[in-house]
Amino acid sequence: MKIERQETFMRDAIPARVKLEVVMCFLSSGISYRLLAIFFRISKSSISKFIPEVCDVMYEALDEYLQVRDKREWEDIQVGFHHRWNFPGCCGAIDGKHVAIQAPPNNCGSSYGRNSDGGVFQASSLYPVLENGSLLPEGGFLVGDDAFPLKTSLLKRYPNEPTIAEKIYNCRFTRARRIVENAFGILVSRFRILAKPIQLQEETAIKMIRTTCELHNWLRKSSLHTYTPPGSIDYEDIVNFTTNLGTWRSEINALPNIARSRINNRSKIAAEKLREKYNFFCDEGAVTWQNYMINNK
Ligand SMILES: *[C@@H]1O[C@H](CO)[C@@H](O)[C@H](O)[C@H]1NC(C)=O
Ligand SMILES: *[C@@H]1O[C@H](CO)[C@@H](O)[C@H](O)[C@H]1NC(C)=O
Ligand SMILES: *[C@@H]1O[C@H](CO)[C@@H](O)[C@H](O)[C@H]1NC(C)=O
Fold first, then answer.
1. Looking at the structure, do residues 80 and 177 belong to the same domain, yes or no?
2. Minimum-distance ligand 1 atom for the alpha carbon of 125
3. Residue nearest to atom 3 of ligand 1 (CA)
4. 161: pLDDT strictly greater than 60
5. Domain check: are 24 and 109 in the same one?
6. Cβ atoms of 96 and 257 closer than 8 Å
7. Helix axes 16-29, 202-222, angle to 10 degrees
8. Distance between alpha carbon 165 and the CA centroid of its chain, in Å?
9. Which residue range(s) make up the domain with 30?
């Protein structure tokens, strides 16, 4: 009886700082509540109670770091892609990843493996606003890999590259898409909870996944060099025309990609026309290093 009372007392007495440490340890390592209980000398029941609560608070507090941009901000990003990656029009790189959720064993509504059909992108809230042109500035588009359908608002690489123009386009495309590869790569390497099936109720797990994304964006803003020190992300050496791969690539297995999307032929033809416009990368849109790059792949 006494021990029980004492436990209740201790549970209430866990300082906020310690709770935050436990949560950060949980998110960054992905270890079980059982091990956390041993490391931190806090009862498992109390850990399993406060982790979702603290995540909730963090999720709310960092909400501004996971927002859809407004038109002005998209325009700034577009300018950035033009200057930094020589890809005019591009407003961002998109990727789709699976994070597995495994509902606790005594829960009959297991959600593991759900949504693994081909329609993840089409079912997303991004799809309709990208499709009807209300998201991006006039003429803006994203770049995405083979999981995505080719559209005027979503360009892909050329599947084959027999011509110089196509090689150069693909080379620029790869550079622009590197952004999102690195973002997801760093995210999973810093928040290892994402690297294996999350053993929580679906609702809690989704909040937790969002919290890691918010933390990632916040840390990139507030602690760029401690969160992503030099060498951790891909680095383009423009003196030697080589790309040095970020260390995350050898530390983790990338998250599995979402399934390939079904393609709508009508929009595909318009998009192929748009992609062909980028043949100007070869002449007036050329940059000095590009032929070197394609010859040294
Ligand atoms: C685009 O789609 C979104 C979501 O369906 C809708 O809210 C918005 O009003 C649409 N905008 C235009 C310009 O059609
Ligand atoms: C380019 O390559 C040379 C020779 O391999 C090397 O010494 C130099 O550090 C490289 N440049 C950069 C910016 O890494
Ligand atoms: C889509 O295009 C493929 C060839 O690229 C063709 O075989 C197919 O019939 C087309 N589908 C529709 C619905 O037009």
1. yes
2. 4
3. 129
4. yes
5. no
6. yes
7. 100
8. 30
9. 2-61
Residues in the chain: 297
Q: Among 4-18, 77-91, 134-148, whose mean pLDDT is lowest?
A: 4-18
The residue nearest atom 5 of ligand 1, judged by CA position, is 128
Ligand nearest the Cα of residue 235 is 2
The number of folded domains in the chain is: 2
Check if 8 has its Cβ closer than 6 Å to any atom of ligand 2.
Answer: no
Nearest ligand, CA 68: 1
242 lines ligand 2 (CB under 6 A): no
**Ligand 1 pocket: which of 71, 134, 136 to mutate (most atoms within 8 A of CB):** 134
Place of tokens 């200057």: 83
Are 48 and 33 a contacting pair, CB within 8 Å? yes
154 and 194 both lie in a single domain:
yes
- What are the pLDDT digits (tens) for 230-264? 999 999 887 777 889 999 998 887 777 877 766 56
Tens-digit pLDDT profile for residues 67-76: 998 889 999 9
Same domain, 208 and 244: yes
pLDDT of residue 26 exceeding 70: yes
Ligand 2 geometric centre to CA of 248 (Å):
22
Q: What would the two tokens of residue 180 be?
A: 């999102």
Last residue of a domain, one of 61, 82, 102: 61
